[in-house]
Write a structure and sequence with these properties.
By secondary structure, the chain is of the alpha+beta class. About 35% of the residues lie in helices and about 20% in strands.
């Protein structure tokens, strides 16, 4: 999982998994799907902020010291479905507005119903809340250093950790090519909640393995040893929620 504020909740492949014709429709009608993903997320953010600000339940005082904000929200499966269906509704709404094609209108209405269904499930199951949210790590700085790892091109990603050893979403990988050297990794833009970080290295961006046995200090750098771990734990999907906060039923706009 990841925080709602880490980036786009869904991607093009998530939309295509729900509607295989999406790519063709977007191409024919000239619709920027990435823009729709962003617009849908902005709408969801407003809905979530409204829900959070309107929910001041007594039990929250037991679990949370302050009222949760959008930065505390974790992307759960049902929240992701809500975003997917809302985006598809917007895409087909745009297509219908352009062509007044009844087929597009039917698709728009179908995904509007699915978005409402996902929204209602979210109210029932609850919004995922992280007590100490860890933002997604930004691209780390990687430079050559004295040492001797096998000559190759390496990919290095990192995650921040908080005081509870919870791990945030991994950064995009930086690349470095070595020649009779090793490399040094340094984090950038440390979030206030972070007290440490983990480093993941591999020979391809989708085959990364954790190199450190214990969390590295937040202000420390990592000098890659001569041996690169090629098995073990890889980077996760991000921080899991500490609490699922059910919401009162509200009328969904749109």
């Amino acid at each position: 999982m990841a925080l709602f504020t880490d980036g786009l909740v869904s991607a093009m492949e998530d939309l295509i998994a729900q509607d295989s014709q999406l790519g063709n429709v977007a191409s024919v009608e000239g619709i920027d799907v990435t823009q729709k993903l962003g617009l849908a997320q902005e709408e969801l953010a407003l809905e979530i902020i409204t829900l959070l600000s309107g929910s001041r339940r007594a039990e929250l005082a037991v679990w949370l010291s302050t009222q949760p904000k959008i930065e505390n929200v974790v992307v759960t499966p049902v929240l992701k479905l809500w975003h997917i269906f809302r985006t598809l509704e917007m895409v087909y709404g745009d297509a219908y507005s352009s062509q007044l094609n009844d087929r597009y209108a039917a698709k728009r209405d179908q995904f509007r119903e699915r978005a409402t269904w996902a929204y209602e499930r979210l109210l029932l199951l609850g919004i995922g809340i992280a007590w100490s949210p860890i933002p997604r790590a930004q691209l780390p700085q990687v430079v050559n250093a004295a040492g001797s790892v096998p000559d190759a091109t390496y990919y290095a990603s990192m995650t921040w950790t908080n005081a509870k050893s919870e791990e945030g979403s991994p950064s995009l990988p930086s690349t470095i090519t070595t020649a009779a050297s090793t490399f040094l990794v340094q984090p950038t833009t440390r979030p206030a909640v972070a007290i440490g970080w983990n480093i993941y290295v591999g020979s391809a961006p989708d085959t990364l393995y954790r190199q450190n046995s214990t969390a590295i200090g937040a202000n420390q750098t990592w000098l890659q040893p001569n041996v690169v771990e090629v098995a073990g734990a890889g980077p996760g999907w991000g921080q899991a929620p500490n609490y699922l906060m059910p919401m009162p039923r509200m009328i969904l706009r749109g």
